[in-house]
Protein backbone atom coordinates (compact mmCIF):
# COMPACT_ATOMS: atom_id res chain seq x y z
CA UNK A 1 0.00 0.00 0.00
CA UNK A 2 2.87 2.42 0.80
CA UNK A 3 4.33 1.72 -2.60
CA UNK A 4 1.06 2.45 -4.31
CA UNK A 5 0.55 5.71 -2.41
CA UNK A 6 4.05 6.92 -3.24
CA UNK A 7 3.41 6.40 -6.96
CA UNK A 8 0.29 8.57 -7.13
CA UNK A 9 0.87 11.45 -9.56
CA UNK A 10 1.61 14.76 -7.85
CA UNK A 11 0.74 16.97 -10.80
CA UNK A 12 -0.95 16.91 -14.20
CA UNK A 13 0.18 18.36 -17.50
CA UNK A 14 -2.46 20.46 -19.26
CA UNK A 15 -2.08 20.60 -23.04
CA UNK A 16 -4.29 23.70 -23.25
CA UNK A 17 -6.20 24.92 -26.29
CA UNK A 18 -3.32 25.05 -28.76
CA UNK A 19 0.43 24.50 -28.96
CA UNK A 20 0.95 27.25 -31.55
CA UNK A 21 3.03 30.09 -30.09
CA UNK A 22 1.23 32.68 -32.23
CA UNK A 23 -2.16 31.46 -31.05
CA UNK A 24 -0.95 31.40 -27.44
CA UNK A 25 -0.26 35.15 -27.59
CA UNK A 26 -3.61 35.84 -29.26
CA UNK A 27 -5.48 33.67 -26.75
CA UNK A 28 -3.74 35.43 -23.85
CA UNK A 29 -4.96 38.87 -24.96
CA UNK A 30 -8.41 37.66 -26.05
CA UNK A 31 -9.29 35.69 -22.92
CA UNK A 32 -7.72 38.29 -20.60
CA UNK A 33 -10.02 40.98 -22.02
CA UNK A 34 -12.96 38.58 -21.96
CA UNK A 35 -12.33 37.65 -18.32
CA UNK A 36 -11.99 41.27 -17.15
CA UNK A 37 -15.19 42.27 -18.98
CA UNK A 38 -17.01 39.26 -17.51
CA UNK A 39 -16.03 40.02 -13.92
CA UNK A 40 -16.64 43.78 -14.19
CA UNK A 41 -19.95 43.27 -16.01
CA UNK A 42 -21.30 40.87 -13.43
CA UNK A 43 -20.02 43.01 -10.54
CA UNK A 44 -21.85 45.97 -12.08
CA UNK A 45 -25.04 43.92 -12.20
CA UNK A 46 -24.68 42.92 -8.52
CA UNK A 47 -23.97 46.54 -7.53
CA UNK A 48 -26.96 47.79 -9.52
CA UNK A 49 -29.39 45.23 -8.12
CA UNK A 50 -28.32 45.70 -4.50
CA UNK A 51 -28.10 49.51 -4.56
CA UNK A 52 -31.45 50.40 -6.12
CA UNK A 53 -34.64 49.86 -4.13
CA UNK A 54 -36.73 49.70 -7.31
CA UNK A 55 -34.97 46.47 -8.29
CA UNK A 56 -36.29 44.35 -5.43
CA UNK A 57 -38.44 41.98 -7.46
CA UNK A 58 -37.72 38.22 -7.49
CA UNK A 59 -36.34 38.43 -11.02
CA UNK A 60 -33.58 40.89 -10.05
CA UNK A 61 -32.83 38.99 -6.85
CA UNK A 62 -32.22 35.85 -8.92
CA UNK A 63 -30.25 37.85 -11.50
CA UNK A 64 -27.94 39.09 -8.77
CA UNK A 65 -27.36 35.51 -7.62
CA UNK A 66 -26.77 34.44 -11.23
CA UNK A 67 -24.15 37.17 -11.69
CA UNK A 68 -22.36 36.02 -8.53
CA UNK A 69 -22.34 32.41 -9.77
CA UNK A 70 -21.09 33.62 -13.17
CA UNK A 71 -18.14 35.38 -11.53
CA UNK A 72 -17.31 32.15 -9.69
CA UNK A 73 -17.84 30.11 -12.86
CA UNK A 74 -15.46 32.32 -14.82
CA UNK A 75 -12.82 32.44 -12.08
CA UNK A 76 -12.19 28.84 -11.02
CA UNK A 77 -10.22 27.92 -14.18
CA UNK A 78 -9.89 30.94 -16.49
CA UNK A 79 -7.08 32.80 -14.61
CA UNK A 80 -5.05 29.57 -14.58
CA UNK A 81 -5.68 29.11 -18.32
CA UNK A 82 -4.64 32.71 -19.06
CA UNK A 83 -1.43 32.32 -17.04
CA UNK A 84 -0.66 29.06 -18.87
CA UNK A 85 -0.66 30.89 -22.21
CA UNK A 86 2.59 32.54 -21.06
CA UNK A 87 4.07 29.32 -19.72
CA UNK A 88 5.89 26.68 -21.70
CA UNK A 89 5.16 23.94 -19.17
CA UNK A 90 1.48 23.94 -18.24
CA UNK A 91 1.05 21.92 -15.07
CA UNK A 92 -1.43 21.77 -12.22
CA UNK A 93 -1.03 20.05 -8.87
CA UNK A 94 -3.11 17.03 -7.91
CA UNK A 95 -5.01 19.04 -5.29
CA UNK A 96 -5.50 21.86 -7.79
CA UNK A 97 -6.92 19.43 -10.34
CA UNK A 98 -9.33 17.95 -7.80
CA UNK A 99 -10.35 21.49 -6.76
CA UNK A 100 -11.19 22.37 -10.38
CA UNK A 101 -13.38 19.28 -10.68
CA UNK A 102 -15.09 20.21 -7.41
CA UNK A 103 -15.81 23.80 -8.43
CA UNK A 104 -16.87 23.06 -11.99
CA UNK A 105 -19.69 20.81 -10.76
CA UNK A 106 -20.58 23.08 -7.85
CA UNK A 107 -21.04 26.16 -10.02
CA UNK A 108 -22.56 24.49 -13.09
CA UNK A 109 -25.03 22.56 -10.93
CA UNK A 110 -25.94 25.74 -9.06
CA UNK A 111 -26.34 27.74 -12.28
CA UNK A 112 -28.59 25.10 -13.79
CA UNK A 113 -30.97 25.34 -10.85
CA UNK A 114 -30.81 29.15 -10.87
CA UNK A 115 -31.83 29.18 -14.53
CA UNK A 116 -34.74 26.88 -13.65
CA UNK A 117 -35.71 29.22 -10.79
CA UNK A 118 -35.64 32.21 -13.13
CA UNK A 119 -37.77 30.37 -15.68
CA UNK A 120 -40.23 29.48 -12.90
CA UNK A 121 -40.41 33.14 -11.87
CA UNK A 122 -41.17 34.18 -15.48
CA UNK A 123 -43.72 31.37 -15.73
CA UNK A 124 -45.57 32.59 -12.62
CA UNK A 125 -45.35 36.24 -13.70
CA UNK A 126 -46.89 35.54 -17.12
CA UNK A 127 -49.25 32.65 -16.39
CA UNK A 128 -50.41 33.75 -12.91
CA UNK A 129 -49.75 37.51 -12.76
CA UNK A 130 -52.27 38.17 -9.97
CA UNK A 131 -50.59 35.64 -7.68
CA UNK A 132 -46.98 36.43 -8.60
CA UNK A 133 -46.24 38.60 -5.55
CA UNK A 134 -47.69 35.99 -3.18
CA UNK A 135 -46.08 32.95 -4.81
CA UNK A 136 -42.65 34.56 -5.32
CA UNK A 137 -42.38 36.02 -1.84
CA UNK A 138 -39.07 36.95 -0.21
CA UNK A 139 -39.03 33.59 1.54
CA UNK A 140 -39.66 31.70 -1.72
CA UNK A 141 -36.90 33.45 -3.65
CA UNK A 142 -34.46 32.88 -0.78
CA UNK A 143 -35.37 29.19 -0.66
CA UNK A 144 -34.88 28.91 -4.44
CA UNK A 145 -31.40 30.44 -4.17
CA UNK A 146 -30.50 28.11 -1.29
CA UNK A 147 -31.79 25.11 -3.23
CA UNK A 148 -29.59 26.07 -6.17
CA UNK A 149 -26.46 26.03 -4.01
CA UNK A 150 -27.60 22.86 -2.21
CA UNK A 151 -28.12 21.03 -5.51
CA UNK A 152 -24.73 22.20 -6.77
CA UNK A 153 -23.04 21.07 -3.56
CA UNK A 154 -24.79 17.69 -3.51
CA UNK A 155 -23.96 17.20 -7.17
CA UNK A 156 -20.26 17.94 -6.79
CA UNK A 157 -19.89 15.93 -3.56
CA UNK A 158 -21.41 12.90 -5.23
CA UNK A 159 -18.90 13.26 -8.06
CA UNK A 160 -15.99 13.75 -5.67
CA UNK A 161 -16.93 10.65 -3.68
CA UNK A 162 -15.43 8.43 -6.35
CA UNK A 163 -13.02 10.92 -7.99
CA UNK A 164 -10.69 11.44 -5.02
CA UNK A 165 -10.14 7.68 -4.69
CA UNK A 166 -9.24 7.05 -8.33
CA UNK A 167 -5.91 5.17 -8.72
CA UNK A 168 -4.09 7.90 -10.65
CA UNK A 169 -0.59 6.47 -10.99
CA UNK A 170 0.14 7.75 -14.51
CA UNK A 171 0.01 8.94 -17.23
CA UNK A 172 -0.75 12.48 -16.14
CA UNK A 173 -1.43 14.37 -19.39
CA UNK A 174 -4.84 16.08 -19.68
CA UNK A 175 -5.71 17.23 -23.20
CA UNK A 176 -7.58 20.33 -22.09
CA UNK A 177 -7.12 23.71 -20.40
CA UNK A 178 -8.71 22.44 -17.16
CA UNK A 179 -9.27 19.23 -15.26
CA UNK A 180 -12.68 17.86 -16.14
CA UNK A 181 -14.04 14.59 -14.84
CA UNK A 182 -14.27 12.53 -18.07
CA UNK A 183 -10.66 13.22 -19.07
CA UNK A 184 -9.22 12.64 -15.59
CA UNK A 185 -11.23 9.42 -15.28
CA UNK A 186 -9.57 8.16 -18.45
CA UNK A 187 -6.19 8.43 -16.69
CA UNK A 188 -7.19 6.08 -13.89
CA UNK A 189 -5.46 2.71 -13.77
CA UNK A 190 -8.66 0.68 -13.81
CA UNK A 191 -11.63 -0.17 -15.97
CA UNK A 192 -13.54 3.11 -15.89
CA UNK A 193 -16.82 1.71 -17.29
CA UNK A 194 -18.65 1.79 -13.94
CA UNK A 195 -17.39 5.29 -13.15
CA UNK A 196 -18.50 6.51 -16.57
CA UNK A 197 -21.95 5.07 -15.91
CA UNK A 198 -22.02 7.03 -12.63
CA UNK A 199 -21.06 10.20 -14.51
CA UNK A 200 -23.95 9.68 -16.92
CA UNK A 201 -26.38 8.98 -14.08
CA UNK A 202 -25.23 12.01 -12.09
CA UNK A 203 -24.24 14.79 -14.50
CA UNK A 204 -26.23 13.51 -17.44
CA UNK A 205 -29.53 13.23 -15.60
CA UNK A 206 -29.04 16.61 -13.87
CA UNK A 207 -28.32 18.32 -17.19
CA UNK A 208 -31.15 16.65 -19.09
CA UNK A 209 -33.73 17.06 -16.32
CA UNK A 210 -33.06 20.76 -15.74
CA UNK A 211 -32.91 21.40 -19.49
CA UNK A 212 -36.25 19.62 -19.92
CA UNK A 213 -37.78 21.73 -17.14
CA UNK A 214 -36.56 24.90 -18.81
CA UNK A 215 -37.87 23.91 -22.24
CA UNK A 216 -41.24 22.88 -20.77
CA UNK A 217 -41.52 26.18 -18.91
CA UNK A 218 -40.77 28.22 -22.03
CA UNK A 219 -43.27 26.21 -24.06
CA UNK A 220 -46.00 26.86 -21.47
CA UNK A 221 -45.14 30.57 -21.48
CA UNK A 222 -45.33 30.73 -25.28
CA UNK A 223 -48.69 28.94 -25.32
CA UNK A 224 -50.07 31.23 -22.61
CA UNK A 225 -48.94 34.40 -24.37
CA UNK A 226 -50.14 33.08 -27.72
CA UNK A 227 -53.77 33.18 -26.53
CA UNK A 228 -53.44 36.71 -25.12
CA UNK A 229 -52.38 38.87 -28.06
CA UNK A 230 -50.03 38.92 -31.01
CA UNK A 231 -48.23 41.99 -29.63
CA UNK A 232 -47.57 40.21 -26.33
CA UNK A 233 -46.43 37.17 -28.25
CA UNK A 234 -43.91 39.19 -30.26
CA UNK A 235 -42.54 40.81 -27.09
CA UNK A 236 -42.32 37.48 -25.26
CA UNK A 237 -40.62 35.84 -28.23
CA UNK A 238 -38.04 38.65 -28.42
CA UNK A 239 -37.23 38.28 -24.73
CA UNK A 240 -37.37 34.51 -24.37
CA UNK A 241 -35.51 33.82 -27.64
CA UNK A 242 -32.44 35.48 -26.16
CA UNK A 243 -32.88 33.50 -22.92
CA UNK A 244 -33.21 30.24 -24.86
CA UNK A 245 -30.03 31.06 -26.81
CA UNK A 246 -28.04 31.33 -23.57
CA UNK A 247 -29.64 28.15 -22.24
CA UNK A 248 -28.66 26.26 -25.40
CA UNK A 249 -25.07 27.55 -25.25
CA UNK A 250 -24.82 26.53 -21.60
CA UNK A 251 -26.62 23.19 -21.60
CA UNK A 252 -25.57 21.99 -25.06
CA UNK A 253 -21.87 21.52 -24.22
CA UNK A 254 -22.67 20.14 -20.75
CA UNK A 255 -25.01 17.51 -22.17
CA UNK A 256 -22.61 16.61 -24.98
CA UNK A 257 -19.61 16.17 -22.65
CA UNK A 258 -21.28 14.46 -19.68
CA UNK A 259 -24.02 12.38 -21.27
CA UNK A 260 -21.47 10.63 -23.51
CA UNK A 261 -18.30 10.59 -21.36
CA UNK A 262 -17.23 7.17 -22.67
CA UNK A 263 -15.46 8.82 -25.60
CA UNK A 264 -13.60 12.11 -25.32
CA UNK A 265 -13.32 14.28 -28.42
CA UNK A 266 -10.90 17.13 -29.23
CA UNK A 267 -13.92 19.41 -29.50
CA UNK A 268 -14.77 18.78 -25.82
CA UNK A 269 -12.21 21.32 -24.59
CA UNK A 270 -13.61 23.90 -27.01
CA UNK A 271 -17.14 23.21 -25.78
CA UNK A 272 -15.95 23.63 -22.19
CA UNK A 273 -15.16 27.26 -23.02
CA UNK A 274 -18.85 27.96 -23.54
CA UNK A 275 -20.00 27.16 -20.00
CA UNK A 276 -16.83 28.40 -18.26
CA UNK A 277 -16.20 31.66 -20.15
CA UNK A 278 -18.75 32.61 -22.81
CA UNK A 279 -21.95 31.97 -20.85
CA UNK A 280 -20.85 34.11 -17.84
CA UNK A 281 -20.33 37.09 -20.16
CA UNK A 282 -23.54 36.50 -22.11
CA UNK A 283 -25.79 36.30 -19.07
CA UNK A 284 -25.36 39.98 -18.06
CA UNK A 285 -26.05 41.06 -21.65
CA UNK A 286 -29.05 38.83 -22.24
CA UNK A 287 -30.72 38.84 -18.85
CA UNK A 288 -29.99 42.34 -17.60
CA UNK A 289 -28.49 44.85 -20.01
CA UNK A 290 -31.37 44.33 -22.44
CA UNK A 291 -33.78 45.10 -19.61
CA UNK A 292 -35.32 48.60 -19.55
CA UNK A 293 -35.30 48.93 -15.76
CA UNK A 294 -31.68 47.85 -15.53
CA UNK A 295 -30.61 50.33 -18.19
CA UNK A 296 -32.51 53.09 -16.40
CA UNK A 297 -30.78 52.30 -13.11
CA UNK A 298 -27.38 52.14 -14.82
CA UNK A 299 -28.00 55.60 -16.26
CA UNK A 300 -28.79 56.91 -12.76
CA UNK A 301 -25.58 55.39 -11.38
CA UNK A 302 -23.46 56.84 -14.18
CA UNK A 303 -25.11 60.24 -13.86
CA UNK A 304 -24.48 60.23 -10.11
CA UNK A 305 -20.88 59.07 -10.10
CA UNK A 306 -19.62 60.51 -13.39
CA UNK A 307 -19.42 64.20 -14.19
CA UNK A 308 -21.33 65.37 -17.30
CA UNK A 309 -18.04 66.10 -19.03
CA UNK A 310 -16.94 62.53 -18.57
CA UNK A 311 -20.25 61.22 -19.92
CA UNK A 312 -19.91 63.38 -23.02
CA UNK A 313 -16.47 61.88 -23.58
CA UNK A 314 -17.79 58.32 -23.51
CA UNK A 315 -17.65 56.33 -26.75
CA UNK A 316 -20.68 56.81 -28.95
CA UNK A 317 -21.51 53.07 -28.90
CA UNK A 318 -21.73 53.10 -25.07
CA UNK A 319 -23.96 56.19 -25.00
CA UNK A 320 -26.24 54.74 -27.67
CA UNK A 321 -26.52 51.51 -25.68
CA UNK A 322 -27.49 53.27 -22.45
CA UNK A 323 -29.68 55.95 -23.97
In words, what does this structure look like?
With 323 residues, this protein is mainly α. The protein has one domain (10-290): Rhodopsin 7-helix transmembrane proteins (Rhopdopsin 7-helix transmembrane proteins). The protein contains 14 helices and three strands. The protein has helices spanning 2-6, 21-51, 58-75, 78-84, 94-127, 132-135, 138-163, 181-186, 193-226, 230-259, 267-289, 292-305, 308-312, 316-322; strands spanning 11-14, 91-93, 173-174. It has a three-stranded mixed β-sheet. α2 (21-51) packs antiparallel against α3 and α2 runs antiparallel to α4. The longest helix is centred in the middle third of the chain and has 34 residues, at 94-127. The model is unreliable at 1-7 (pLDDT under 50).
Uncertain residue segments: 1-7
Residues in helices, as a percent range: over 70%
Please tell me how large the radius of gyration is: 22 Å
CATH domain class name: Mainly Alpha
Let me know the number of strands.
Answer: 3
Helices and strands, in order, run as HEHHHEHHHEHHHHHHH
Topology:
Blueprint: H1 2-6, E1 11-14, H2 21-51, H3 58-75, H4 78-84, E2 91-93, H5 94-127, H6 132-135, H7 138-163, E3 173-174, H8 181-186, H9 193-226, H10 230-259, H11 267-289, H12 292-305, H13 308-312, H14 316-322
Parallel strand pairs: 1-3
Antiparallel strand pairs: 1-2
Helix pairs in contact: 2-3, 2-4, 2-11, 3-5, 3-11, 5-7, 5-9, 7-9, 9-10, 10-11
